[in-house]
Amino acid sequence: MAIHDGDILYLYDAKLTNPNGDPDDENRPRMDEATGRNLVSDVRLKRYLRDYWLNAGEDIWVRRTEQEETTSAKQRMSVLLEDYNRENGTNLNERQARQSREFKDWLLGRLRDVRLFGATMPMENTSVTFTGPVQFSWGYSLNRVEINNSATISSHFAGRENEYGTFGKDWRVHYSLLAFYGIVSRNRARHTRLTEDDLAALDDALVRAIPQEATTRSKIGQTPRLYLRVEYEDGSPLRLGDLREDLSLDPADGKTPDTLRDIRDFTIGFDRVLERVRTSEGGILRARLWTHPELGDAFERRLRGVLGDRLETL
């Protein structure tokens, strides 16, 4: 099945947790101080997806050690080249591998994250770059976010009977509804051999990865809320683009935009999103949608009213 250009809208929320700490700022949650919006990098999001695939038994390019240190690109390439030589009965060095179409095809066939997101791979004093057909912007919160700061004590054992603790800061957001925008490029998909199965794996991971992988003390409290991936007819100039600013948050009675603490404290307004869909409807091939049960099915029903059987639910 052919790959088509597409747009992605992805929402998840974070409650009393640290979605993406800044190591250069006491690990505070990343913030746009001018707007009060919480920020999360695309690197953080893709780390959840990669960890999900790795724990499902897939090989990936970017991985971490048990000590939570990222394995260097040179180390990964060395391991992969050894695997290739062993599997194929060859003895390529890095210079030969860089010039080998068979080795590059083997890499792409093995590493789903490279087929999706691309990679820069070091080979003999240079590098080979695959530009990923799937790209995400940084995510930002749709609400103004307050940060809660409390001291924490970390315990360390100094000896058989002695224990000491160190004080630190435990930075967490009260509540953040985070939104990401992503794109799928059919032209770039040809260069990384992206498949429909890869996009189905992406759909699955964006729904399931965070609940399974955000399980450390500072990351518990994050829940996917909505995932929408739209595919376009080849050659159509119509595009939805970034839909995040077309969403509205309507606080429940007694709440204000600055006092949101839970998904039940507001409803998400999709009127402007649906208007954008109606405007671009002629160029839409199909759409895939997942919504958390707590959001209800109103958006799904209204979107189906525009797209009909072109809307698939996950």
Automatic annotation (TrEMBL):
<dbReference type="InterPro" id="IPR013419">
    <property type="entry name" value="CRISPR-assoc_prot_Cas7/Csh2"/>
</dbReference>
<dbReference type="GO" id="GO:0043571">
    <property type="term" value="P:maintenance of CRISPR repeat elements"/>
</dbReference>
<protein>
    <submittedName>
        <fullName>CRISPR-associated protein, Csh2 family</fullName>
    </submittedName>
</protein>
<dbReference type="Pfam" id="PF05107">
    <property type="entry name" value="Cas_Cas7"/>
</dbReference>
<dbReference type="InterPro" id="IPR006482">
    <property type="entry name" value="Cas7_Csh2/Csh2"/>
</dbReference>
